[in-house]
Every structure is written in C-alpha cells, then in structure tokens.
Design a protein that fits this description.
This protein is 23% helix and 34% strand. The chain has 149 residues and is of the alpha+beta class. The chain has one domain: Nucleoside Triphosphate Pyrophosphohydrolase, CATH 3.90.79.10. A hairpin with a 6-residue loop joins strand 2 and strand 3. Helix 2 runs antiparallel to helix 3. It is globular and about 45 Å long. The N and C termini lie far apart (46 Å).
Length: 149
Amino acid sequence: MKYKIPVSVLVVVYTPELQVLLLERADKPGFWQSVTGSQEAGETLEATAIRELQEETGLKADDYRLEDWHMSNRFEIYTHWRGRYEPGVTHNTEHVFGLRVPRAVPVKVSPREHLGYVWVDRDHAIDKVFSWTNAAALKVLPDHAGAQE
C-alpha cells in the first residue's frame, strides 16, 4: 500500500466579489470543503496545488493567478482517514493557497472524490465547511483578495 504524506494543500478558489467554490466530498456526503490534497513525493507545494486544482475541478492554475498565502495549519487527522497514512501518523500540516477567478466559473468535479460543487459567499462558506482549517483560511480571504488589487 502506498501511504499518503502527511503534508497537504488547501486551495481557496474565489471571485473578486468573494464568492467561494466549495466541493462536497464523495466519501462523506454533506462535508463541504475547498480544493485539498496531499503532497506527493518530490513534489513542491505549488505543484501539489496545481495538480489538485486540475484533478478536482478541471481548472488550470496557469489560466488564473495562484498565490501561496504563506499560511499553514497542523491538525489531527480524523480517525476514519488515518489508514491512508503510515501507522502512527496522527497529524497533517496543511498549506494554504488562493486562486482568484474572474467570476463563478463552471468546474468539472472528479466523481471519485466529489459529489458536486457550489459557489457561495464567503460568510456562508465559513459556516458550510466542515474543517476548522478551511474556515480559518476563508476568514482571512479578504486580506489576500485585497492584496491582488
């Protein structure tokens, strides 16, 4: 079995009006999140973000502007997902990126990973996501969105 590396990215996809893309997990219906994914061996964090965007939404980072927010969170991995990691691994470090798109663009979700997607305003997104790290990233979105003006 190939174990996941306990380092991941979270990519907040958003519009200038702070509409946020959320994806519903296929393995946990009702669990909404931004784009996420684990780093692969030898991959930079930016490369992980680019790959996960493409895999989970069909969006190409090169068509927009991907930014490293230089923000990370360490969290305990949910027990039901720990089997994906080497025995004894209990925590993951997640690095936050943002991708600004001009409007709420259609995306193509990977049915293996997600049931669907919605575009919602940032405040609604904060309440809708299941992960505290995702909510924390959404709370600072205005600071990062304003930096791109």
